[in-house]
Specification:
- 39% of the residues lie in helices and 16% in strands.
- It is α/β, with parallel strands linked by helices.
- The chain has 2 domains: 163 residues, Acid-sensing ion channel domain (Helix Hairpins), CATH 1.10.287.820; 44 residues.
- Strands 1, 2, 3 and 4 form a 4-stranded mixed β-sheet that branches.
- It is elongated.
- GO terms for molecular function: ligand-gated sodium channel activity.
């Protein structure tokens, strides 16, 4: 999965795994938006039963567990559950597979009820893998032999794995409102000013003009009546 990447390590080859972390955050002012509109949940908006912290992956796992428990009366051993929840045996494998497949189908009602969105703050890891043929020399073998092997160093089925970060910097992505209500008002004022020579200051001047004219006209009527 994107949040838990994995790869294969080949025997008799050297493998280099480079990790690329990605940080996604959301501006706090978007908290007042509907989660479906902003496309994510804050930590305190979507509590989970089996996990302390909300992530989309945790939400999916909990949804699969609930679907399996509701349909099959048990939960697979590799899914989260409470201590008193029955664990599915081999005879319930088909039932569990069907219920989990239905829970991840976007067109199924079970998927809609899960209501799993990405977390508003999350860290994901991508990996890039490179492997190549490596002739493990005697010097390399001796370096590993002293700490791992008590006997002769194996000549076959040996793999060298190097794990490192691809860069020393992490680029964070932030969800922001591209077009807010303030921007909407500003654009309306700008368009009116461009095509009609109109501004909100002109609007207040017009209102002031009519109010002043009304009171002036009313004052003149009173003067005529007194005369």
């Amino acid at each position: 999965t994107p949040s838990h990447p994995s790869t294969y390590v080949h025997a008799d080859r050297a493998t280099t795994i480079k990790i690329v972390p990605e940080i996604k955050t959301t501006k706090e002012e978007l908290r007042r938006w509907d989660p479906k509109l902003r496309g994510c949940f804050f930590d305190d908006e979507r509590p989970l039963q089996y996990f302390q912290y909300y992530t989309e992956k945790n939400c999916d796992l909990e949804c699969e567990s609930n679907a399996s428990l509701s349909r099959c009366g048990c939960v697979p051993f590799y899914h989260p559950r409470t201590r008193d929840t029955p664990v599915c045996g081999p005879e319930k494998y088909d039932c569990c597979f069907e219920s989990i497949a239905e829970s991840i189908d976007p067109d199924s009602p079970s998927f809609q009820n899960c209501n799993c969105l990405p977390a508003c703050f999350e860290i994901e890891y991508r990996i890039s893998v490179a492997n190549f043929q490596r002739n493990f020399s005697t010097a390399t073998a001796k370096g590993f032999q002293s700490g791992i092997f008590s006997g002769n160093f194996p000549e076959n089925n040996f793999a060298l794995v190097t794990v490192q970060y691809q860069t020393q910097k992490v680029i964070a992505q932030m969800r922001v409102a591209v077009f807010s209500f303030t921007d909407f008002i500003a654009n309306i004022g700008g368009l009116l000013g461009l095509f009609l020579g109109f501004s909100f200051l002109s609007l207040f001047e017009i209102i002031y003009f009519f109010v002043l004219k009304y009171y002036k006209k009313r004052s003149n009527k009173r003067t005529d009546t007194d005369n």
